[in-house]
Amino acid sequence: MKLWQKGNNVDEQVEKFTVGKDVLFDIQLAEYDVLGNIAHARMIASIELLTKEELNKLEAELKKIYHQIKKGNFILEEGMEDVHSQIEYQLTQSLGETGKKIHVGRSRNDQVLVDLKLFLREEIKSLITHIERLFKLLLQQSEKFRNHLLPGYTHFQVAMPSSFGLWFGAYAESLSDDLEMLLASYTMVNKNPLGSAAGYGSSFPLNRQMTTDLLGFESLNYNAVYAQMTRGKSEKAVAMGMSNVASTLSRLAYDVCLYMNQEFGFVKFPDELTTGSSIMPHKKNPDVFELIRARCNRIQAIPNELTLLTGNLPSGYHRDLQLSKEIIFPAITSLKECIEMTILMLENISIRENILNDKKYDVLYSVESVNQLVMQGTPFRDAYKQVGETIAQGNFQRPQSVPYTHEGSIGNLNNNKIAEKFNSTLSKFKFNEKMRELIQ
Ligand code: ARG
After folding, report:
1. Which tens digit of pLDDT belongs to each residue from 297-333?
2. 82 contact partners, CB below 8 Å, separation of at least 6
3. Any idea what DSSP says for residue 50?
4. Who's near 416: CB < 8 A, 6+ residues apart?
5. Which distant-in-sequence residues (6+ apart) come within 8 Å of 109 by Cβ?
6. Cβ-based neighbour number of residue 347 at 10 Å
7. Does 127-204+219-357+407-433 match 12-101 at the fold level?
8. What span, in angstroms and rounded, lies between the C-alpha atoms of 142 and 413?
9. Could you tell me the distance, in angstroms and rounded to a whole number, from the CA of residue 146 to the centre of ligand 1?
10. pLDDT-derived band at 283, boundaries 50, 70, 90
11. Superfamily for domain range 12-101
């Protein structure tokens, strides 16, 4: 069934090609389509385009469809173009004339947009629950392993003393910044496009503020042309936020692969969390982290893919935009899975003690020796030369104490400050359950 069909049938190949993967991905939009439908129906009833009785019937039917979706029984029937057509079809099947009235004052263009925004809002929310769990775990591990020293490297060369406290905390703080980017994308997405219709508004006296309130949006995309332009742009903003998280995870994954390597041997995981080789009986491979790294690198390509999808589009709706779903939907799922796996692995990590006792790490303390000479009055450059010579002659002795006191150093992790920053950003997300009230 095509909502727009006026007589002759569409060529089968054209139909298959244009529907594409909507059959698959529109299912994820279905519950939001119902919520958008209820808000729209209430609004058009308020301007007398539906009677009270018609509205009641529509709402009752839409609630049924909502529960059908929640039970996993909702499908796009054979020949159905998209979720919007399926729901309108079901309404018309059960309510006849009344069902046919719901599409007044809107277009599928603002309908799919509002669905997407509600979907993205919920997905960001769920992503953040995952991120928060990982953040807390990282800080916990940072505290637990605060005294486990680790070589710090620059250029992959032994550089200065670091610690697992500092290492875990670094990724926690990285997530805290990533959260700020997600907050920006959430704020962008949290605006109502409904009422922009095909992209040029409607001559009906729509009450756009009403649907904005009903759906719990913070405000509107006011300009109808711009509202339509947020298609693709919203997905890209979220993808950019996700891309930062992905970059944090893929770096962490690389560190772990390195630290697990026998030359380093800093960290270990229980056998059941590692994978074997079909030929080498001794192998315990870090496949989980390698796949996190690979997936997260792919996720970082998503903003670029969306840029290429939308980059040559003028304003107005274009069918190209349909493909944004198949780009971003699987990426969201993948990122959540990567976070879950990172949590599972890091909960079970063991860290080698006394790593720095090995003589080869003595030079990590060269700067400390220089600093001690400076404290005794030697100018820095002279102290630097002096220590350099001792190292070259093979006479370097590592100093006993390493007094790091400043903020964010091995002796003063400032994890509480990092947590404060994270929580402050978290509190700025204007999450609300308003849209769910529509089906109560
Ligand atoms: N499946 C379409 C999409 O995702 C729905 C909007 C169709 N609008 C249109 N004018 N053909 O973009």
Report:
1. 999 999 999 999 999 999 999 999 999 999 999 999 9
2. 19, 22, 26, 76, 108, 112
3. S
4. none
5. 196, 197, 198, 199, 228, 231, 317
6. 11
7. no
8. 9
9. 54
10. confident
11. Fumarase/aspartase (N-terminal domain) (1.10.275.10)
From 112, 233, 325, mutation site for ligand 1 pocket: most ligand atoms within 8 A of C-beta: 112
Q: Which atom of ligand 1 is nearest to the CA of 4?
A: 11
Inter-residue contact 119 to 28 (CB < 8 Å): yes
Alpha-helical (H) ranges within 265-311 are 287-299, 302-310
Q: For residue 12, name the pLDDT band (cuts at 50, 70, 90).
A: confident
Q: Are 308 and 262 in contact (CB under 8 A)?
A: no
Q: End-to-end alpha-carbon separation of the chain, Å? A: 31
pTM higher than the cut 0.85: yes
The rounded Å distance from CA 108 to ligand 1 centre is 6
Q: Which whole-number Å values give the CA distances from 353 to 111, 143, 331, 357, in the listed order?
A: 58, 15, 38, 9
Express each pLDDT in 219-254 by its tens digit. Answer: 999 999 999 999 999 999 999 999 999 999 999 999
As its CATH architecture, domain 127-204+219-357+407-433 has: Up-down Bundle (1.20)
Q: How far apart are CA 291 and CA 299, in angstroms?
A: 12
How many A from CA of 58 to the centre of ligand 1?
A: 23
Nearest CA to ligand 1 atom 12: 322
Give the domain ranges of the chain. Answer: 12-101, 127-204+219-357+407-433, 359-392
Cα(197) to centroid(ligand 1), Å: 12
The answer on pLDDT for 201 being more than 90 is: yes
> What are the residues facing 220 on neighbouring strands?
192
Q: Among 110, 101, 238, which residue's Cα sits nearest to residue 182?
A: 238
Q: Are 74 and 27 in contact (CB under 8 A)?
A: yes
196 CA → ligand 1 middle, Å: 14
State how far the Cα of 197 lies from the Cα of 45, in Å rounded to an integer.
17
From 109, 110, 309, the mutation candidate for ligand 1 (largest count of ligand atoms within 8 A of CB) is: 109
Provide the greatest CA pair distance for the chain. 94
Residues 244, 131: Cα–Cα separation, whole Å: 12
Query: Ligand 1 pocket: which residues have CB below 6 Å?
Result: 22, 82, 108-109, 112, 317, 319, 321-322
